[in-house]
Protein 1
Amino acid sequence: MRTVLTVVAGVLALLCIGGVATALVWYNRASTPDRSTPDVAVINYLQATLVAREPERAKLFTCDGAVPSVDEFAADVAGREQELGVSFSINIEDVVVTETVSSDATVIAVIRRGATIDGVHQSLADTWQFDLKDRDGWRVCAGARIS
């Protein structure tokens, strides 16, 4: 009887250890930001900054924690929303990697914001250029509106 209990206890201990290890691997994969390619890093950065409005999450996709021009754009959008009493929908479109050299890349993206104001749907689109560096995954270092 003692041997059976020892074997059962050993099997249960192994199952628990295996379950904890599996949970840690899944958690790590789920919580690690996807910076696998320059275009994916830009999309995730813009989603965190402009759509979800999570500055702490956005920092996971940047070189130095902030991209001032994009932060100013986000503040401008928030100000216009408050001024007009509407909520803008933000779409990131036409994301294209235009240049990749070693650990540097350039990405062009269109940021479209739209809202219904006085019953009329209105939309504005701006083209942006982002400079990225590969630092343990691609990170946005600079951004500028180009049109």
Note: The first strand starts at residue 89 and ends at 101.
Protein 2
Amino acid sequence: MTIYACKLPSYQNWQEVQFYSQYISQKRRGRIQKFKKVGDAYRSLTSELLLRKILFDQYRLVDVTISTDKQGKPYLPYHSNIHFNLSHSGAWCVCVVGEKQVGIDIEYIDVVPENMIFTILSDEELASEDNLHHLFFEKWTVLESYLKMIGTGLYLPLGSVDMKSTSDRTYSVKHREGKYPAGTSNCYTFDENYKLSICTGELDKNMHTCIYQYEFDKLVNSSKGTNPQAPI
């Protein structure tokens, strides 16, 4: 499975955001206009540009309509055989596209939220683990990728999900009451300071994943001519 990544440009300005916004959906343009920080605008902008670039390169889709379900998970209403998921953090936006439900999450390894650490890490891990920062963000991305795969996001109580490490970087994840399908999440250290996890419903402990990087200024080359009014 391929993960697609794009690093935000180091120089950011609102004029460039406005220019590239002509190639994204009207709804996302409206969302971007509400941001006060230019970095937040770039992350939202780049996420959709990256998705549209992948859909063109892999499926030759140009006029793409993107909708959201009741839980807010985006999907392609006219291409039900194509599933995707997006995530962004810090300087990176990532996307995964496939033929089955999939979830992805990337997080910059930063200060661990004190109110969350006891929810994510067990007492045993807190007592024995030396590098709690890396473990916390590893398990956090594993959890997020699973919740995004099943389409609930953080609406589902975090304590209702079990995560079990089955091998190096691989976790078996399931809902305790069995209301949602189980999944396998593979976690990676990305660009040294990020944790990235991808979750699928396939119980494949040896899932091979590669990461393909796009340059920001190449994203719109094939997006020109797309339908900018497509909702998302």
Note: The first helix runs from residue 14 to 20.
Protein 3
Amino acid sequence: MELINRIKEDILNNRLPMGVALRQTVLSTRYEVSRIPVRDALQALKAEAWLVPHGKAGVMIPKLNWKEAEDLALMRAKLETLALEFAFEHIRSTHLDEAYSYLRKLEVRDLTLLERGNLNWRFHYAIYRACDRPTLMRSIEVLNIQASRYLGFQFGPLGYHNHSQQEHNEWLELIACHDKVAAVQLLEKHIISAGERLTEHLKKA
């Protein structure tokens, strides 16, 4: 897992080239490990859509695409609001306390992009998990893993962190006040608005 995360960090920070084959021998030297863990890490990253096939047996980092970013946001908005609707009547103070704990951790300034993405997912998961719908939650987690490839833009040039945190706080307050309609609406807006900003940015890139 450590090697997978190191590769993800290098992808997020543009330290590995997009659109060209990643060579196991080069990566083995770069990360000072044998080729076997490199091969396994590349297979795992391909399964998470962080890498795509290239050539007969190789892989590469796909270029960021506005259509993919838009699709991920639209799908996340549909499924995550559905999870919230299923979860709402079962959300307890323990779920809210857990979510608030991740929200506080997201305020730490020196988090890596990968750490920030993982904490953001755990924050949302703390609330959604009350829905007790394993199949739905697996689908949402997969979408979030794919969407995390775009974190470098959302927390970099788009400067979305402060706005995101503000909406996170507002969202938890609505849940605590048992305002289901407003909480679902804000969640949808939260995901769609971020997706629209990212999509427009990528179109201009």
Note: The chain has ten helices and two strands.
Protein 4
Amino acid sequence: MSRPSLKDQRSEQILDAYLTCVARYGLDGATQERIAAQAGVKRPLLRHYLGNKEEMIAALAAHVVAEYATLTGFMQAEFGAVETAAGLVELLYRDDPTSDPRLMLAWQALTVAVADYPDMRDPLLDSLARFIDAVEATLRRVAPEAEAGRIRAVTQGIVAPYVTLDSISPLKPPKNWRAEMKQSAMTLAASLTQDLSPEEAR
């Protein structure tokens, strides 16, 4: 397996700095000066490695989508060991989350910019849809008797607060919010077997 080139390594370094700046300052606030300072490079190198503003935004969007695909794949592998809906919630809302809050913050910033960069819409939407579908597939497997519409609704109810935790991370919300969102997700997960007999729920 070949080693990544210096150009690839430097591009990844700059993209990571860009991700940090967008998460911290928004898309418009992620100026070239801030990105260069965060990456520890001279400003002219940004254009050399990532191109002009439009190309930089496209590169960031592709980076965020690729990182979400990697994260979703990692979590799907973990979902395979889940045996109950409550177990899925425990995995998602664990105290040491595997997600990088910068990804969701950048995803949101890019989403706001879709009106100006419409080509980003489908890849960004698909990146979230793949994660939602992975959660739904797991719930279908562990609660096969539950009606499809209920599973879909519960999926959305579990994913929404999970995503919210990353999106509000700059606010440093009270720690009990994670516990409360987890409890809300647990309540929804339990609803998948509420109307089943004990034999059906096994």
Note: The CA atoms of residues 15 and 63 lie 8 Å apart.
